[in-house]
Amino acid sequence: MPYCQTLIIGAGPAGLTAAYELANSGASVVVIERDPRYVGGISRTVEHRGYRFDIGGHRFFSKSEEIEALWTEILGDEMLQRPRSSRIYYDGKLFDYPLKPFDALGKLGPIEAARCVLSYLKARAFPQRPATNFEQWVVNNFGRRLFEIFFRTYTEKVWGMDCAEISADWAAQRIKGLNLFRAVVSGLGLGKTRKRSEVIKTQISSFRYPRLGPGQMWERARDLIVERGGEVRMNTTITGLRQNGGDGLWTAQLSTGETITAEHVISSAPMPELVRLIGADSDHVVDVASKALRFRDFVVVALIVAGEERFSDNWIYVHDPRVRVGRIQNFKSWSPHMVPDPATACYGMEYFCHQTDGFWNMSDRELVAMARREIAELGLAVADDVVEGVVVRQPKAYPVYDDDYRRNVQVIRDALNERFTNLHLVGRNGMHKYNNQDHAMMTALLTARNILAGREIHDPWDVNEDAEYHEGGEATAQRVSERLVPRRAA
Question: What percentage of the chain exceeds 70 in pLDDT?
Answer without folding.
Answer: 87
